[in-house]
């Protein structure tokens, strides 16, 4: 059974004028000017230089294994940055700023209505920028060592949803020594699907921590590759220019936190995007199965099933001549929602059983709540309520208030998601946009919010929303949040002075590349009309 794109697109999901594919066909074979090629070449090299600086800085300030197990210590040349952590941090900051600037300049050629690039060309540039980060030590997070330690717990026959890494492996284990103290004794918060892949990584890498890190990065790159493949296809269905979608989808947040930081969100995003495209193009059953596989690794992916179901219900109503906005639409939504959800949940259950890990992951979903994330609105309100109670001498009831605000936040998110599903059913919202806003509601109202969680909102938003203001806000968020997290994945206990010193040094050094960029950055091209015969810049990426 097949499911096609919505036939009655909404204001956000329908393009004004011809489709992006039709616009591409209408362009003539006029070559780009030498000045445009020169400016694009400078932008590409500027971003690549920033990526190289981040890779060099990662040797000294990256999330390398614990000192006693760091393979870079004592190595000539490569071991030097580790002896100069503040300098390495400043270098990484300069590289971060250069990459964000280069991405923004590239966006001048990839903005809807002003596109001057091709999908292939943009993909090559993004791969070029990602390459140095893909071979350097991790930045921004030590989570990859948590993945390795939890997979090792499974390999040794322990239940990862009962035993923490320290209990199963011992405190002197190099993997345990490389993760933050708060997570050494906690069970794994990840589903059996992800730990099954992790067990395969452990079987291949053995005791080689470096090889294990790179194998997890390969998994992350596969997820990003799925996003790069699916984003242009989903964008065409939603009336978004594929180039604009791909540029916003692969933002500095993706390069920093998924390529360099190796968060498993890359796998989940890739699987969800792939599942949605297959569900629209081929069969809702295949799409639900693929999304279910993603949810078996990280359960929030299950939310995408609701919007796939709404899409299928609408298509079935329109195909049979029934009104999806009336009672028939609600009945169809209930029916197809049950079928699609049952298919996805059956896959999650099958993975849980056949992996041998069972359903302990359900109880372990609350493990991340141990961290009080200051980016989470519900957590901030709970802590504030607890402090007010202390100030009024009513006692410390922070935990109780936190439980209340977090539960209320999830309730609000559930209500928002239900309204979004109805909007998709009635043709007022594209299903991919529904996925974006649904993920945004869940994470913004959730108990924990890390900067890279915003990608669950930003990546599908890039491929589904055409409103210039919304896309402008998304660009501003991606650029600013990308600079929010320090590049080092380690804490600054007893050395907090390094951060301000590195930032001031980076600001001073950044003057040089900024001066060098004057007169060389891509200009904003004129808005393209149906009659325009401009062709994208055809500069080959070398």
Describe this structure in words.
With 542 residues, the chain is an all-alpha fold. It is built from 24 helices and no strands. It has helices spanning 20-26, 34-61, 80-83, 85-107, 119-135, 143-155, 165-169, 174-177, 192-205, 209-238, 242-249, 252-260, 265-281, 284-295, 303-319, 327-354, 361-364, 377-391, 398-425, 431-444, 455-462, 468-482, 498-509, 511-516. The longest helix is centred in the middle third of the chain and has 30 residues, at 209-238.
Show the helix and strand layout:
Layout: H1 20-26, H2 34-61, H3 80-83, H4 85-107, H5 119-135, H6 143-155, H7 165-169, H8 174-177, H9 192-205, H10 209-238, H11 242-249, H12 252-260, H13 265-281, H14 284-295, H15 303-319, H16 327-354, H17 361-364, H18 377-391, H19 398-425, H20 431-444, H21 455-462, H22 468-482, H23 498-509, H24 511-516
Helix pairs in contact: 2-4, 2-5, 4-23, 5-10, 5-12, 6-9, 6-10, 9-10, 10-11, 10-12, 10-13, 11-21, 13-14, 14-15, 14-16, 15-16, 15-19, 15-20, 18-19, 19-20, 20-21
């Amino acid at each position: 059974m097949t499911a096609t794109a919505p036939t009655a697109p909404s204001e956000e999901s329908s393009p004004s004028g011809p489709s992006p594919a039709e616009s591409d066909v209408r362009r003539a074979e006029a070559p780009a000017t030498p000045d445009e090629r020169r400016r694009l070449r400078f932008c590409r090299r500027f971003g690549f230089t920033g990526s190289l600086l981040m890779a060099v800085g990662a040797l000294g300030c990256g999330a390398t294994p614990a000192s006693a197990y760091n393979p870079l210590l004592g190595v000539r040349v490569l071991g030097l940055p580790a002896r100069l952590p503040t300098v390495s941090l400043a270098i990484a900051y300069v590289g971060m700023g250069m990459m964000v600037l280069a991405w923004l300049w590239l966006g001048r050629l990839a903005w809807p209505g002003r596109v001057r690039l091709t999908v292939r060309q943009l993909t090559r540039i993004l791969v070029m920028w990602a390459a140095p980060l893909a071979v350097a030590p991790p930045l921004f997070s030590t989570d990859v060592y948590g993945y390795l330690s939890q997979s090792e717990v499974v390999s040794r026959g322990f239940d990862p949803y009962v035993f923490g890494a320290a209990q199963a492996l011992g405190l002197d284990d190099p993997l345990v020594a490389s993760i933050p103290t708060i997570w050494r004794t906690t069970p794994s918060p990840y589903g059996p699907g992800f730990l099954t892949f992790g067990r395969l990584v452990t079987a291949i890498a053995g005791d080689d921590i470096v090889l294990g890190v790179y194998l997890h990065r390969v998994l992350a790159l596969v997820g990003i590759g799925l996003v790069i493949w699916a984003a242009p296809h989903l964008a065409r269905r939603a009336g978004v220019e594929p180039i604009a979608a791909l540029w916003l989808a692969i933002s500095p947040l993706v390069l920093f936190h998924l390529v360099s930081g190796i968060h498993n969100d890359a796998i989940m995003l890739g699987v969800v995007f792939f599942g949605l495209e297959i569900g629209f193009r081929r069969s809702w059953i295949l799409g639900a199965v693929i999304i279910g596989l993603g949810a078996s690794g990280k359960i929030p992916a299950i939310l995408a099933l609701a919007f796939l179901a709404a899409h299928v219900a609408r298509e079935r109503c329109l195909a049979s001549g029934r009104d999806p906005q009336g009672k028939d639409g609600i009945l169809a939504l209930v029916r197809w929602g049950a079928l699609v959800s049952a298919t996805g949940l059956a896959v999650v259950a099958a993975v849980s059983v056949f992996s041998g890990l069972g359903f302990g992951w359900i109880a372990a979903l609350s493990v991340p709540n141990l961290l009080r994330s200051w980016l989470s609105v519900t957590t901030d309100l709970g802590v504030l309520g607890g402090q007010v109670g202390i100030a009024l001498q009513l006692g410390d009831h922070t935990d109780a208030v936190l439980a209340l605000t977090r539960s209320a936040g999830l309730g609000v998110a559930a209500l928002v998601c239900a309204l979004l599903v109805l909007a998709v059913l009635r043709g007022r919202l594209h299903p991919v946009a529904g996925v974006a806003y649904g993920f945004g509601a869940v994470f913004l109202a959730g108990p924990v919010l890390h900067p890279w969680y915003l990608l669950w909102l930003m990546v599908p938003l890039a491929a589904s929303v055409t409103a210039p203001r919304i896309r402008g806000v998304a660009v501003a968020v991606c650029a600013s949040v990308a600079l929010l997290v320090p590049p080092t994945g380690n804490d600054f206990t007893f050395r907090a002075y390094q951060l301000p010193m590195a930032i001031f040094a980076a600001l001073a050094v950044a003057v040089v590349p900024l001066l060098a960029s004057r007169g060389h950055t891509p200009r904003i091209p004129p808005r393209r009309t149906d009659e325009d015969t401009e062709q994208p810049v055809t500069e080959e990426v070398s």
